[in-house]
Amino acid sequence: MSASPLSNAPAEGLDSARFAAHLSQRTTLPSWWLDAKKAAWNQFSALPLPSRTDETWRFSDLKGLDLTGFKLPEDAPQPHPKHAAFPQTAELVFSNREAITRSTMPADLAARGVIFAPLEEALREQGDLVRSYFQKHPANLGSEKFVALNTALTATGAFLYVPADVEIALPFVVQHTLTGQNLAAFPHTLVVLGPRAKATLVEFFVSGGPASERQLVAGVNDLHAAEGAQLTYVGAQHWSRETLAFQVNSIAAERDARVLSLNLHLGGRQARHESHSRLLGPGAHSEMLALTVADGDREFDQRTLQTHVAPNTTSNLLYKNALLETAKTIFSGLIIVEPDAQKTDAYQKNRNLMLSDDAEAHSLPGLEIQANDVKCSHGSTSARIDAEQEFYLQARGIAPAAARRLLVTAFFEEVLNKLENEDLHAALTALIATRFQA
After folding, report:
1. Does the structure show a pLDDT above 50 at 10?
2. Element (H, E) at 20
């Protein structure tokens, strides 16, 4: 196989030879997995990069999608920053492509069948279970090329399985650290909750080197909640200022299941996040939340879809962005109510706090309703920070940067208060505060 440029196919450093080497290092994994990787590589190579005619990339900076020059890290760990003080049941820490820290699963949970392991270990030991849920419900919101690249080259990620009727109070924590210039990472996490199970997974994505390091990240999550299950997912990213990041989340909620997903965006030069929530059984509920601190000339692109398939389902979306300097955010969200989804109750709201006259916020909420007995609404607001509040704080000796941090934190509290775990709430608040430190 010969290498070709990654403008519409593989780039130098992520060429066909490197993909073949990636496969050859994984011959102990199931054949279906290797076949899926080959198919994904072919799909990635065949799909073009997004163009101006793609509605799913409206307002995006397509000139910033330069994928040339990236390479996979060597299979060796690098120094990594410690994550925030997340409460935890157990944790996995990945540095580049290596799992370097793994805490022991509590014995009582292991005895009840809970599995928390690196993805490749789960493929070897629980291959059929992984196969049943891996990419079962693709997001399909415009980043199919980058999802294919993830499947082709993923080597890190976590698998969490919680059997029926097992409830776990403290979160499982996964940290992904990427350290090195022009390196690429493709984490993939799969979460499966059985009927009436309850669990929380926290993922922290962070660059370990200087803020100037150029990096590429394409991550994917598959989140599945069976009948009556309660799943909380928190994803927080603090990539370098020069990172090009894609994150795609797929959420599936069965009858009476409840899924809360909260994504915190703090880093990256250009970061795109896609989240598709499917309400598949009556009584299912999805809470889709996001917080973004955008400064400099960064772009944060958010695309969402709430698909109501079954009747008597509910969903609520609240995305909040704080914009400084010349940053840009894009929110494009759609609620789809299918013909059989009568009695749907769905809401969608995007709120932007403008901290600069030069910042730019685009908001495109939408509805596509095919049933006649529903309650659906959407809204978007953009407003400047209250000058009187800012003056009040500064008049009492609070420095401008600290005053801004306090006001942004207050703006975010509506979302953070939806978390049940107070320690997790505090850890995310502390992580947000780091974005305002000199």
Report:
1. no
2. helix 16-24
